[in-house]
Amino acid sequence: MTTEIKVPTLGESVTEATVARWLKKIGEAVKIDEPLVELETDKVTLEVNAAASGVLTEISADEGANVEVGGLLGMIVEGGAATASAKAAAPAPKPAEAPKPAAAAPAPTVAAPSDLDRSGPAARKIVDEQKLDATTIPATGKDGRITKGDALQAAAKQAPAAPAAPVAASPRPADPREQRVKMTRLRKRIAERLKEAQNTAAMLTTFNEVDMSAVMALRETYRDSFEKKHGVRLGFMSVFVKAAIAALKELPAVNAEIDGDDIVYKNHYDIGVAVGTENGLVVPVVRDADKMGFAEIEKAISAFGRKARDGKLTLEDLSGGTFTISNGGVYGSLLSTPILNPPQSAILGMHKTQKRPVVIGDKIEIRPMMYLALSYDHRIIDGREAVTFLVRLKEGIEDPQRLLIDL
User: What are phi and psi of 48, to 5 degrees?
Assistant: First the structure.
Protein backbone atom coordinates (compact mmCIF):
# COMPACT_ATOMS: atom_id res chain seq x y z
CA MET A 1 0.00 0.00 0.00
CA THR A 2 1.28 3.46 -0.90
CA THR A 3 0.93 6.46 1.45
CA GLU A 4 1.27 10.03 0.24
CA ILE A 5 3.30 12.57 2.18
CA LYS A 6 1.45 15.87 1.96
CA VAL A 7 2.01 19.40 3.21
CA PRO A 8 -0.03 19.76 6.41
CA THR A 9 -2.11 22.75 7.45
CA LEU A 10 0.42 25.45 8.28
CA GLY A 11 -1.69 27.79 10.38
CA GLU A 12 -3.93 30.78 9.90
CA SER A 13 -3.12 32.86 6.79
CA VAL A 14 -0.12 30.62 5.92
CA THR A 15 -0.68 28.83 2.61
CA GLU A 16 2.83 28.11 1.36
CA ALA A 17 6.12 26.79 2.68
CA THR A 18 9.63 26.00 1.43
CA VAL A 19 11.19 22.54 1.66
CA ALA A 20 14.17 23.25 3.92
CA ARG A 21 15.69 19.80 4.39
CA TRP A 22 14.86 16.16 3.77
CA LEU A 23 15.77 14.02 6.78
CA LYS A 24 15.44 10.76 4.82
CA LYS A 25 16.65 9.63 1.42
CA ILE A 26 14.84 7.63 -1.22
CA GLY A 27 15.12 3.96 -0.40
CA GLU A 28 15.50 4.42 3.36
CA ALA A 29 13.17 2.75 5.85
CA VAL A 30 10.92 5.01 7.91
CA LYS A 31 8.80 4.43 10.99
CA ILE A 32 5.41 5.89 11.70
CA ASP A 33 5.62 9.40 13.25
CA GLU A 34 9.33 9.63 12.36
CA PRO A 35 10.35 13.08 11.04
CA LEU A 36 10.81 12.99 7.26
CA VAL A 37 11.21 16.55 6.05
CA GLU A 38 11.51 20.09 7.44
CA LEU A 39 9.33 22.86 6.01
CA GLU A 40 10.07 26.53 6.51
CA THR A 41 7.15 28.95 6.64
CA ASP A 42 7.02 32.71 7.07
CA LYS A 43 7.09 32.22 10.84
CA VAL A 44 8.50 28.85 11.91
CA THR A 45 10.26 25.71 10.77
CA LEU A 46 8.20 22.57 11.25
CA GLU A 47 8.69 18.86 10.69
CA VAL A 48 6.43 16.57 8.67
CA ASN A 49 6.26 13.08 10.16
CA ALA A 50 5.61 9.75 8.46
CA ALA A 51 1.97 8.69 8.50
CA ALA A 52 2.96 5.03 8.09
CA SER A 53 5.94 2.71 8.40
CA GLY A 54 7.64 1.54 5.23
CA VAL A 55 10.15 2.82 2.69
CA LEU A 56 10.48 6.31 1.21
CA THR A 57 10.18 5.58 -2.50
CA GLU A 58 9.67 9.04 -3.99
CA ILE A 59 10.53 12.66 -3.27
CA SER A 60 8.23 14.95 -5.23
CA ALA A 61 9.48 18.29 -3.86
CA ASP A 62 13.23 18.82 -3.65
CA GLU A 63 14.95 21.01 -1.10
CA GLY A 64 14.34 24.69 -1.86
CA ALA A 65 11.03 24.03 -3.63
CA ASN A 66 7.95 26.05 -2.67
CA VAL A 67 4.92 23.93 -1.80
CA GLU A 68 1.32 24.73 -0.96
CA VAL A 69 -0.89 23.28 1.76
CA GLY A 70 -2.03 19.83 0.63
CA GLY A 71 0.75 19.57 -1.95
CA LEU A 72 2.54 16.25 -2.51
CA LEU A 73 5.98 15.93 -0.91
CA GLY A 74 6.71 12.26 -1.52
CA MET A 75 5.52 8.66 -1.26
CA ILE A 76 5.94 5.83 1.25
CA VAL A 77 5.42 2.18 0.34
CA GLU A 78 4.22 0.42 3.46
CA GLY A 79 6.02 -2.76 4.42
CA GLY A 80 8.70 -2.37 1.72
CA ALA A 81 12.34 -3.25 2.30
CA ALA A 82 14.97 -0.55 2.33
CA THR A 83 17.37 -0.54 -0.57
CA ALA A 84 21.11 -0.26 -0.23
CA SER A 85 21.23 2.95 -2.18
CA ALA A 86 18.87 5.84 -2.73
CA LYS A 87 17.94 4.55 -6.17
CA ALA A 88 19.06 1.59 -8.16
CA ALA A 89 21.23 2.69 -10.98
CA ALA A 90 19.21 2.67 -14.16
CA PRO A 91 20.79 0.90 -17.15
CA ALA A 92 22.59 3.27 -19.40
CA PRO A 93 20.38 4.20 -22.32
CA LYS A 94 21.34 2.73 -25.65
CA PRO A 95 22.97 5.41 -27.72
CA ALA A 96 20.66 6.58 -30.43
CA GLU A 97 21.71 5.97 -33.97
CA ALA A 98 22.93 9.02 -35.76
CA PRO A 99 20.21 10.26 -38.10
CA LYS A 100 20.87 9.72 -41.72
CA PRO A 101 21.54 12.91 -43.61
CA ALA A 102 18.53 14.08 -45.51
CA ALA A 103 18.75 14.08 -49.24
CA ALA A 104 19.94 17.41 -50.44
CA ALA A 105 17.17 19.49 -51.88
CA PRO A 106 17.73 20.56 -55.47
CA ALA A 107 19.23 23.99 -55.78
CA PRO A 108 16.65 26.57 -56.80
CA THR A 109 16.89 27.77 -60.33
CA VAL A 110 17.94 31.39 -60.42
CA ALA A 111 16.51 33.31 -63.23
CA ALA A 112 18.84 35.25 -65.42
CA PRO A 113 18.94 39.00 -64.91
CA SER A 114 15.93 40.51 -66.57
CA ASP A 115 15.06 43.73 -68.18
CA LEU A 116 13.47 45.81 -65.43
CA ASP A 117 11.47 47.80 -67.96
CA ARG A 118 9.43 44.68 -68.84
CA SER A 119 8.49 44.16 -65.17
CA GLY A 120 5.34 45.44 -63.50
CA PRO A 121 5.05 48.96 -61.96
CA ALA A 122 4.89 47.61 -58.39
CA ALA A 123 8.17 45.75 -58.79
CA ARG A 124 9.87 48.76 -60.43
CA LYS A 125 8.72 51.04 -57.58
CA ILE A 126 10.23 48.75 -54.92
CA VAL A 127 13.51 48.51 -56.84
CA ASP A 128 13.72 52.29 -57.19
CA GLU A 129 12.80 53.08 -53.57
CA GLN A 130 15.13 50.47 -52.10
CA LYS A 131 17.89 51.26 -54.63
CA LEU A 132 18.21 47.59 -55.62
CA ASP A 133 20.42 46.24 -58.41
CA ALA A 134 17.93 44.71 -60.84
CA THR A 135 20.63 42.59 -62.47
CA THR A 136 21.10 40.63 -59.22
CA ILE A 137 17.42 39.87 -58.57
CA PRO A 138 16.33 36.31 -59.54
CA ALA A 139 13.19 36.70 -61.67
CA THR A 140 10.35 34.20 -61.39
CA GLY A 141 7.82 35.95 -63.61
CA LYS A 142 6.86 35.01 -67.12
CA ASP A 143 9.57 35.57 -69.72
CA GLY A 144 12.08 36.53 -67.02
CA ARG A 145 10.10 39.38 -65.52
CA ILE A 146 10.68 40.50 -61.92
CA THR A 147 7.56 40.15 -59.83
CA LYS A 148 6.60 42.23 -56.80
CA GLY A 149 7.43 39.23 -54.61
CA ASP A 150 10.93 38.99 -56.15
CA ALA A 151 11.54 42.67 -55.39
CA LEU A 152 10.28 42.39 -51.82
CA GLN A 153 12.45 39.34 -51.15
CA ALA A 154 15.53 41.13 -52.51
CA ALA A 155 14.74 44.19 -50.38
CA ALA A 156 14.43 42.04 -47.24
CA LYS A 157 17.85 40.50 -47.89
CA GLN A 158 19.37 43.92 -48.31
CA ALA A 159 17.73 45.43 -45.17
CA PRO A 160 20.08 45.81 -42.18
CA ALA A 161 19.66 43.29 -39.38
CA ALA A 162 17.30 44.33 -36.61
CA PRO A 163 19.07 45.51 -33.48
CA ALA A 164 19.47 42.80 -30.87
CA ALA A 165 17.10 42.93 -27.93
CA PRO A 166 18.67 44.51 -24.88
CA VAL A 167 20.27 41.94 -22.62
CA ALA A 168 19.01 41.90 -19.05
CA ALA A 169 21.53 43.20 -16.59
CA SER A 170 23.45 40.32 -15.10
CA PRO A 171 24.13 40.15 -11.37
CA ARG A 172 27.30 41.65 -10.03
CA PRO A 173 30.25 39.39 -10.89
CA ALA A 174 31.00 36.90 -8.14
CA ASP A 175 33.87 37.77 -5.85
CA PRO A 176 35.77 34.71 -4.55
CA ARG A 177 35.86 36.40 -1.14
CA GLU A 178 32.06 36.61 -0.99
CA GLN A 179 29.25 34.09 -0.61
CA ARG A 180 25.81 34.60 -2.15
CA VAL A 181 23.03 32.87 -0.19
CA LYS A 182 19.31 32.99 -0.95
CA MET A 183 17.23 34.57 1.80
CA THR A 184 15.19 32.13 3.85
CA ARG A 185 11.43 32.47 3.87
CA LEU A 186 11.56 33.52 7.53
CA ARG A 187 14.17 36.22 6.86
CA LYS A 188 12.15 37.57 3.93
CA ARG A 189 9.03 37.70 6.10
CA ILE A 190 10.91 39.54 8.85
CA ALA A 191 12.11 42.07 6.27
CA GLU A 192 8.58 42.55 4.91
CA ARG A 193 7.03 43.06 8.35
CA LEU A 194 9.66 45.50 9.54
CA LYS A 195 9.40 47.53 6.34
CA GLU A 196 5.62 47.45 6.67
CA ALA A 197 5.94 48.91 10.17
CA GLN A 198 8.09 51.76 8.86
CA ASN A 199 5.77 52.48 5.94
CA THR A 200 2.50 52.31 7.88
CA ALA A 201 3.01 53.56 11.43
CA ALA A 202 3.91 57.08 12.53
CA MET A 203 6.77 55.64 14.55
CA LEU A 204 8.52 57.56 17.27
CA THR A 205 10.85 56.56 20.14
CA THR A 206 11.19 58.04 23.60
CA PHE A 207 13.81 57.17 26.22
CA ASN A 208 14.38 56.98 29.95
CA GLU A 209 16.82 55.30 32.28
CA VAL A 210 16.26 53.06 35.27
CA ASP A 211 18.33 52.28 38.35
CA MET A 212 18.63 48.50 38.55
CA SER A 213 19.94 48.44 42.15
CA ALA A 214 16.70 47.29 43.79
CA VAL A 215 16.01 44.52 41.24
CA MET A 216 19.58 43.26 41.45
CA ALA A 217 19.40 43.22 45.26
CA LEU A 218 16.07 41.36 45.11
CA ARG A 219 17.53 38.82 42.74
CA GLU A 220 20.65 38.32 44.87
CA THR A 221 18.61 37.84 48.06
CA TYR A 222 16.10 35.32 46.71
CA ARG A 223 17.96 33.71 43.82
CA ASP A 224 18.80 30.38 45.48
CA SER A 225 15.53 29.89 47.34
CA PHE A 226 13.51 30.91 44.26
CA GLU A 227 15.31 28.39 42.03
CA LYS A 228 15.06 25.65 44.68
CA LYS A 229 11.29 26.09 45.02
CA HIS A 230 10.29 26.76 41.41
CA GLY A 231 13.03 24.98 39.45
CA VAL A 232 13.82 28.06 37.37
CA ARG A 233 16.17 31.02 37.80
CA LEU A 234 14.88 34.43 38.80
CA GLY A 235 15.74 36.77 35.95
CA PHE A 236 15.10 40.40 35.12
CA MET A 237 12.58 39.68 32.38
CA SER A 238 9.76 38.57 34.69
CA VAL A 239 10.11 41.80 36.68
CA PHE A 240 9.98 43.87 33.47
CA VAL A 241 6.93 41.94 32.26
CA LYS A 242 5.07 42.60 35.52
CA ALA A 243 6.13 46.27 35.55
CA ALA A 244 5.06 46.68 31.91
CA ILE A 245 1.64 45.16 32.62
CA ALA A 246 1.10 47.58 35.52
CA ALA A 247 1.90 50.48 33.16
CA LEU A 248 -0.27 49.05 30.37
CA LYS A 249 -3.28 48.88 32.69
CA GLU A 250 -2.92 52.58 33.43
CA LEU A 251 -2.29 53.49 29.77
CA PRO A 252 -4.54 51.22 27.64
CA ALA A 253 -3.60 52.92 24.34
CA VAL A 254 -0.12 51.38 24.60
CA ASN A 255 -1.78 47.95 24.66
CA ALA A 256 -4.14 48.73 21.75
CA GLU A 257 -3.95 48.52 17.96
CA ILE A 258 -5.44 50.25 14.93
CA ASP A 259 -7.82 48.29 12.71
CA GLY A 260 -8.93 50.41 9.76
CA ASP A 261 -10.67 53.43 11.24
CA ASP A 262 -11.10 51.78 14.65
CA ILE A 263 -8.92 51.56 17.76
CA VAL A 264 -9.07 48.13 19.39
CA TYR A 265 -8.36 48.27 23.12
CA LYS A 266 -7.16 44.95 24.53
CA ASN A 267 -8.36 43.89 27.96
CA HIS A 268 -5.88 41.03 28.01
CA TYR A 269 -2.11 41.18 28.30
CA ASP A 270 -0.28 38.81 25.94
CA ILE A 271 3.34 39.86 26.11
CA GLY A 272 5.68 39.00 23.24
CA VAL A 273 9.28 38.34 24.24
CA ALA A 274 11.73 38.75 21.33
CA VAL A 275 14.17 35.85 20.99
CA GLY A 276 17.12 35.80 18.60
CA THR A 277 17.76 32.56 16.70
CA GLU A 278 20.14 31.50 13.93
CA ASN A 279 17.36 32.00 11.40
CA GLY A 280 16.26 35.41 12.66
CA LEU A 281 14.25 37.17 15.34
CA VAL A 282 11.06 35.48 16.57
CA VAL A 283 8.57 36.70 19.15
CA PRO A 284 6.84 33.96 21.18
CA VAL A 285 3.92 35.20 23.27
CA VAL A 286 3.37 34.76 27.01
CA ARG A 287 -0.43 34.70 27.12
CA ASP A 288 -2.43 36.22 29.98
CA ALA A 289 0.81 37.22 31.66
CA ASP A 290 -1.16 39.43 34.06
CA LYS A 291 -2.57 36.27 35.65
CA MET A 292 0.87 34.72 36.15
CA GLY A 293 3.34 34.99 38.97
CA PHE A 294 7.05 35.67 38.57
CA ALA A 295 7.87 31.95 38.51
CA GLU A 296 5.27 31.14 35.85
CA ILE A 297 6.55 33.93 33.61
CA GLU A 298 10.16 32.77 34.02
CA LYS A 299 9.17 29.18 33.19
CA ALA A 300 7.28 30.27 30.08
CA ILE A 301 10.16 32.41 28.83
CA SER A 302 12.70 29.66 29.54
CA ALA A 303 10.58 27.10 27.67
CA PHE A 304 10.29 29.44 24.66
CA GLY A 305 14.06 29.92 24.67
CA ARG A 306 14.65 26.15 24.48
CA LYS A 307 12.06 25.70 21.75
CA ALA A 308 13.55 28.57 19.75
CA ARG A 309 17.06 27.09 19.92
CA ASP A 310 15.75 23.67 18.89
CA GLY A 311 13.55 25.07 16.11
CA LYS A 312 10.42 23.71 17.82
CA LEU A 313 8.35 26.89 18.09
CA THR A 314 4.84 26.51 16.70
CA LEU A 315 2.60 29.02 14.96
CA GLU A 316 0.46 29.07 18.10
CA ASP A 317 3.50 30.17 20.12
CA LEU A 318 4.04 33.15 17.81
CA SER A 319 0.46 34.22 17.12
CA GLY A 320 -1.16 37.26 18.70
CA GLY A 321 0.53 39.43 21.26
CA THR A 322 -0.55 42.86 22.48
CA PHE A 323 2.84 44.32 23.51
CA THR A 324 6.46 43.27 22.90
CA ILE A 325 9.63 43.45 24.99
CA SER A 326 13.02 43.12 23.29
CA ASN A 327 16.19 42.75 25.36
CA GLY A 328 19.15 43.87 23.29
CA GLY A 329 21.20 44.08 26.44
CA VAL A 330 21.98 40.36 26.29
CA TYR A 331 24.09 41.15 23.20
CA GLY A 332 25.73 44.20 24.80
CA SER A 333 23.53 46.92 23.27
CA LEU A 334 23.69 50.14 25.29
CA LEU A 335 20.97 52.03 23.39
CA SER A 336 18.73 51.37 20.38
CA THR A 337 15.39 52.30 18.80
CA PRO A 338 13.36 49.09 18.52
CA ILE A 339 10.98 48.76 15.58
CA LEU A 340 7.29 47.97 15.99
CA ASN A 341 5.92 44.45 15.73
CA PRO A 342 2.72 45.00 13.65
CA PRO A 343 -0.14 45.26 14.38
CA GLN A 344 0.98 46.18 17.89
CA SER A 345 1.35 49.87 18.67
CA ALA A 346 4.36 49.82 20.99
CA ILE A 347 7.52 47.89 21.83
CA LEU A 348 9.87 48.23 24.81
CA GLY A 349 13.62 47.97 24.31
CA MET A 350 15.78 46.89 27.25
CA HIS A 351 19.53 47.40 27.16
CA LYS A 352 22.77 46.58 28.88
CA THR A 353 23.05 47.32 32.60
CA GLN A 354 26.14 49.46 33.10
CA LYS A 355 27.55 51.22 36.15
CA ARG A 356 27.41 55.00 35.76
CA PRO A 357 27.74 58.02 38.06
CA VAL A 358 24.32 59.44 38.92
CA VAL A 359 23.14 62.17 41.26
CA ILE A 360 21.34 60.78 44.34
CA GLY A 361 20.13 63.64 46.49
CA ASP A 362 23.11 65.93 46.70
CA LYS A 363 25.69 63.19 46.13
CA ILE A 364 27.15 61.47 43.11
CA GLU A 365 26.98 57.70 43.38
CA ILE A 366 27.88 54.78 41.13
CA ARG A 367 24.71 52.87 40.24
CA PRO A 368 23.89 50.05 37.79
CA MET A 369 21.83 51.88 35.17
CA MET A 370 19.88 50.72 32.11
CA TYR A 371 18.52 52.82 29.25
CA LEU A 372 14.94 52.09 28.25
CA ALA A 373 13.42 52.85 24.83
CA LEU A 374 9.74 52.83 23.92
CA SER A 375 8.95 52.91 20.20
CA TYR A 376 5.30 53.66 19.55
CA ASP A 377 2.77 54.50 16.86
CA HIS A 378 2.04 58.22 17.21
CA ARG A 379 -1.28 57.73 15.44
CA ILE A 380 -2.71 56.14 18.59
CA ILE A 381 -0.24 56.96 21.38
CA ASP A 382 0.57 60.55 22.29
CA GLY A 383 3.90 61.69 23.67
CA ARG A 384 2.37 62.21 27.12
CA GLU A 385 1.25 58.59 27.25
CA ALA A 386 4.60 57.28 26.03
CA VAL A 387 6.57 59.27 28.61
CA THR A 388 4.13 58.33 31.39
CA PHE A 389 4.42 54.66 30.47
CA LEU A 390 8.21 54.75 30.87
CA VAL A 391 7.90 56.64 34.18
CA ARG A 392 5.51 54.02 35.55
CA LEU A 393 7.79 51.26 34.33
CA LYS A 394 10.77 52.96 35.97
CA GLU A 395 8.87 53.23 39.27
CA GLY A 396 8.04 49.52 39.22
CA ILE A 397 11.64 48.48 38.50
CA GLU A 398 13.24 50.80 41.01
CA ASP A 399 10.74 49.77 43.71
CA PRO A 400 9.65 46.17 42.98
CA GLN A 401 7.47 46.08 46.09
CA ARG A 402 5.00 48.26 44.20
CA LEU A 403 4.38 45.34 41.85
CA LEU A 404 3.60 43.00 44.74
CA ILE A 405 0.90 45.27 46.16
CA ASP A 406 -0.40 46.31 42.69
CA LEU A 407 0.60 49.99 42.73
Answer: -105, 125
